[in-house]
């Protein structure tokens, strides 16, 4: 694995020998973004690797249960399903759903759909929104932030701005 680890990710396992035992070590990033090392000792590489991997899994699950990285696109699918339910109940307009779907399909998902939900920081979102406003015009640029920020908030993205940037 190259580059910086994402939240909840682990790196490659590396080994050392200590007093006739195999020591497996692996770095991972916890949910607060801190780089940590798990270490396990066993009589074989395979057993040491399994023990180190289990230690990382336990540490990550003890945090907030978030192990698999959720992308912005996956969060958007969940968010759209919630809006669809509101439309069926009559608490949201079908036109609102169409506008949100269009903004996601045309602007948000092609640009940031592959990001993990913890990656959109206020600075990154600001750059994205500035680009949309410059390319598509102010009116459309105002609609996109509302949908993008709402669906990130609904996914529980840590560090997501508390107020909508273009209200």
Automatic annotation (TrEMBL):
Q: Does the keyword DNA-binding apply?
A: yes
Protein name, as recorded: Core-binding (CB) domain-containing protein
Taxonomic lineage from the root: Bacteria, Bacillati, Actinomycetota, Actinomycetes, Kineosporiales
InterPro entries assigned: DNA_brk_join_enz, Integrase_recombinase_N
Q: Keywords assigned by UniProt? A: DNA-binding
């Amino acid at each position: 694995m190259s580059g910086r680890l994402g939240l909840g990710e682990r790196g490659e396992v590396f080994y050392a020998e200590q007093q006739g035992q195999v020591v497996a070590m692996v770095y991972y990033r916890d949910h607060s973004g801190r780089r940590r090392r798990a270490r396990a000792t066993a009589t074989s590489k395979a057993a040491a690797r399994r023990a180190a991997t289990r230690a990382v899994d336990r540490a990550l699950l003890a945090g907030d249960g978030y192990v698999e990285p959720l992308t912005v696109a996956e969060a958007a699918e969940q968010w759209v399903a919630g809006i669809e339910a509101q439309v069926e109940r009559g608490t949201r307009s079908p036109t609102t759903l169409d506008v949100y779907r269009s903004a996601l399909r045309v602007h948000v998902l092609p640009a940031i759909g592959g990001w993990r939900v913890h990656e959109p920081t206020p600075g990154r979102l600001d750059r994205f929104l500035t680009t949309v406003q410059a390319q598509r015009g102010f009116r459309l640029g105002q609609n996109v932030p509302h949908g993008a920020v709402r669906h990130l908030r609904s996914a529980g993205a840590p560090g997501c701005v508390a107020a909508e940037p273009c209200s």
